[in-house]
Write a structure and sequence with these properties.
The chain has helices spanning 17-33, 47-50, 67-74, 133-142, 155-163, 174-179, 213-219, 225-240, 286-311, and strands at 8-14, 38-44, 80-84, 96-101, 109-112, 127-129, 147-149, 169-173, 188-190, 204-209, 249-256, 259-267, 274-282. It has 312 residues and is α/β, with parallel strands linked by helices. The structure holds the ligand NCc1[nH]cc(CCC(=O)O)c1CC(=O)O. It catalyses: 4 porphobilinogen + H2O = hydroxymethylbilane + 4 NH4(+). InterPro entries: HemC, Porphobilin_deaminase_cofac_BS, Porphobilin_deaminase_N, Porphobilinogen_deaminase_C, Porphobilinogen_deaminase_C_sf.
Length: 312
């Protein structure tokens, strides 16, 4: 038990099923680590949850999903916010910080379909649903014959649209399906060499007030060191590319015996140009490795691609 005068932690959370699952998961972990502690959920709807019919890239990107939660923490209506790391903007507002990164779930993208078992089985002209520019560009590069159609909404909405026959297959993060106990919908987890995941995919992070030492002490047992290094490297790469909003960027890292291996990708929206590189180094250098890989990618032509994407 940590010595602290804090007896309650309030978790600001979005109301989507996945967000609630993650908040409950953190609540459970906190209660396990600190049996005396009361943990409550403060659910709220964000702009990102309200605007469901417009591609994310057009409405300002990921920040829309976290703003309300951050304001609640700054105003003292909540103490922590639980995020999917891949939805957390690379920079934090003054007074808040990302304190904790929990152990990563399956980081891969999942192929979900009612008729087909694998990406390779899709016939020419098959309609694949995803709104992620990262998935779109990699899919187009792999299979220029597929038709990629926008797909927004929470996990259940996306599955419903597939079941209604609007798509032949959809791509979702495996982690979301696993957490919502729908892993039977995963026909095939696409290996990371075929489809490079988004930075932080599958990892849950906890944000809190930067100077709230009591809360930080209570969060400490939830930290997973290897996941932290990996996610820090991936995020540093995105930061180096200024990949704050929705962009066709993939970054994924693994650690073997303390050595971190980071792979990065920037692609054009049509999938015609894909720039890839990788870097290795001690896990402690996670952020430098990410920054270094970003500058290599920029030099190799990612700057031109990204400027085009931002202009659109
Ligand atoms: N962009 C929405 C989002 N944010 C996190 C996940 C899944 C879980 C995760 O990556 O931690 C998803 C769903 C998806 O991309 O299919």
């Amino acid at each position: 038990m940590t010595q602290t005068s804090v007896s309650e932690i309030r978790i600001a959370t979005r109301e989507s099923q996945l967000a609630l699952w993650q908040a409950h998961f953190v609540k459970q972990q906190l209660e396990l680590a600190h049996p005396e502690l009361t943990v409550t959920l403060v659910p709220m709807t964000t702009k990102g949850d309200q605007i469901l019919d417009t591609p994310l890239a057009k409405i300002g990107g990921k920040a829309l999903f976290v703003k309300e939660l951050e304001v609640a923490m700054l105003e003292g209506r909540a103490d922590i916010a639980v995020h999917s790391m891949k939805d957390v903007p690379v920079e934090f507002p003054e007074g808040l910080m990302l304190n904790t990164i929990c152990e990563r779930e399956d980081p891969r993208d999942a192929f979900v379909s009612n008729q087909f078992d694998r990406l390779d089985d899709l016939p020419a002209g098959a309609i694949v649903g995803t709104s992620s520019l990262r998935r779109q560009c990699q899919l187009k590069a792999l299979r220029p014959d597929l038709v990629i159609k926008d797909l927004r909404g929470n996990v259940n909405t996306r599955l419903r649209k597939l079941d209604e026959g609007q798509y032949d297959a959809i791509i979702l993060a495996a982690a979301g399906l696993i957490r919502l106990e729908m892993s039977e919908r995963i026909k095939h987890a696409i290996d990371t060499h075929t489809l490079l995941p988004a930075n932080g995919q599958g990892a849950v992070g906890i944000e809190c007030r930067a100077h709230d030492n009591e809360i930080k002490a209570l969060l400490a047992p939830l930290e997973h060191t290897a996941t932290r290094y990996r996610v820090l490297a991936e995020r540093a790469m995105n930061r180096g590319l200024e990949g704050g909003c929705q962009v066709p960027i993939g970054s994924y890292s693994e650690i073997t015996d303390g050595e971190l291996h980071l792979r990065g990708l920037v692609g054009s929206l049509d999938g015609q140009t894909v720039i890839q590189d990788d870097i290795r180094g001690p896990q402690e250098d996670a952020e430098q490795l990410g920054a270094e890989l970003a500058s290599r990618l920029l030099k190799a032509g990612a700057d031109v691609i990204l400027n085009e994407v931002y202009d659109k």
